[in-house]
């Protein structure tokens, strides 16, 4: 694949964006960027430093001392500490939307996200990729599924990774994050006007990936190598 392309996949919590984005990136042999992992790493760091995630002023002070790196194979480093697993824990999930609502945290991370998309073809997933981070993305997908479907999927995923939780906790977390993410002032979760809506409630992972690949081919001419 020669042409440089940028694919934005946005949508609410646990809609399966990262699963689909990873497989699409693999099929096209391009880089996958999980922007949620960056907000999660920031949250992990605040918790490590015993900073209250609802205290914006104290959280902003961390910007000068935090270094977040996304490595191949979805490894996430925070100040050289491998936090790949820890950032998926419920204690991080329940606080991350507060951190993600702070404009200066967003500007700090968005700057890095844009730099990552400058050089290479990327599939980037998040909440504001099509609306704010990469407004000129070649393809924009807004991926949704019902709250119940999303909660069951995330619950199954957590259990398979050994993360202790109940279905009720997950459903509450998903609802609460959707609310905070879509009601914040700066770059809230919303579908870009030129995005394609993909409802995966009744689709398998393979069907969702196929649909996204078809949309990409139609818009850019780029398709997986046979
Ligand atoms: O995709 P995720 O669940 O790992 O994202 C974690 C949180 O980070 C999510 O609740 C909202 C926030 N987020 C964001 O505000 N903007 C992004 N581009 C990605 C994630």
Can you tell me about this structure?
The protein has 226 residues and is an alpha/beta fold. The protein has one domain (6-213): P-loop containing nucleotide triphosphate hydrolases (Rossmann fold). The protein is built from 10 helices and 8 strands. It has a 5-stranded parallel sheet with strand order 2-6-1-7-8, sandwiched between helices. Strand 3 (68-71) and strand 4 form a beta hairpin. Helix 1 (17-28) packs across helix 10 and helix 8 (147-160) crosses helix 9. The longest helix is centred in the middle third of the chain and has 17 residues, at 103-119. It is globular and about 50 Å long. The structure holds 2'-deoxycytidine-5'-monophosphate. 2'-deoxycytidine-5'-monophosphate binds next to helix 2, helix 5 and helix 9.
Structural class: alpha/beta
Beta fraction of the residues? 15-25%
Bound molecules: 2'-deoxycytidine-5'-monophosphate
Indicate the radius of gyration in whole angstroms: 17 Å
CATH topology tier name? Rossmann fold
- Ends: how far apart? 11 Å
CATH architectural group: 3-Layer(aba) Sandwich
Stretches where pLDDT is under 50 for at least 5 consecutive residues are none
Order of helical and strand elements: EHEHHEEEHHHEHEHHEH
- The CATH class is Alpha Beta
Strand arrangement, major sheet: 2-6-1-7-8
- By DSSP, the count of extended strands is 8
Fraction of helical residues? 40-55%
CATH superfamily: P-loop containing nucleotide triphosphate hydrolases
List the SSEs and their pairings.
Layout: E1 6-10, H1 17-28, E2 31-34, H2 35-48, H3 56-61, E3 68-71, E4 75-78, E5 81-82, H4 90-93, H5 96-99, H6 103-119, E6 122-126, H7 129-133, E7 139-144, H8 147-160, H9 167-183, E8 196-199, H10 205-220
Parallel strand pairs: 1-6, 1-7, 2-6, 7-8
Antiparallel strand pairs: 3-4, 4-5
Helix pairs in contact: 1-10, 8-9
């Amino acid at each position: 694949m020669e042409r440089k392309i940028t694919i934005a996949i946005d949508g609410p919590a646990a809609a399966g964006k990262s699963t689909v984005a990873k497989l699409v990136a693999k099929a096209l042999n391009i880089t996958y960027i999980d922007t949620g992992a960056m907000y999660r790493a920031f949250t992990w760091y605040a918790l490590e430093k015993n900073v209250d995630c609802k205290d914006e002023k104290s959280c902003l002070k961390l910007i000068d001392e935090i270094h977040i790196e996304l490595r191949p194979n979805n490894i996430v480093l925070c100040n050289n500490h491998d936090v790949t697993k820890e950032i998926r824990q419920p204690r991080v999930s329940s606080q991350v939307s507060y951190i993600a609502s702070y404009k200066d945290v967003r500007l700090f991370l968005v700057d890095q996200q844009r730099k990552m998309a400058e050089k290479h073809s990327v599939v980037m997933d998040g909440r504001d990729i099509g609306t704010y981070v990469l407004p000129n993305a070649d393809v924009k997908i807004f991926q949704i599924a019902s709250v119940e479907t999303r909660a069951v999927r995330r619950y199954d995923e957590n259990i398979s990774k050994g993360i202790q939780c109940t279905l009720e906790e997950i459903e509450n977390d998903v609802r609460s994050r959707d609310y905070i993410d879509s009601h914040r002032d700066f770059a809230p979760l919303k579908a870009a006007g030129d995005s394609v809506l993909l409802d995966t409630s009744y689709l398998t992972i393979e069907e969702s990936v196929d649909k996204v690949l078809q949309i990409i081919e139609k818009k850019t001419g780029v398709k997986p190598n046979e």
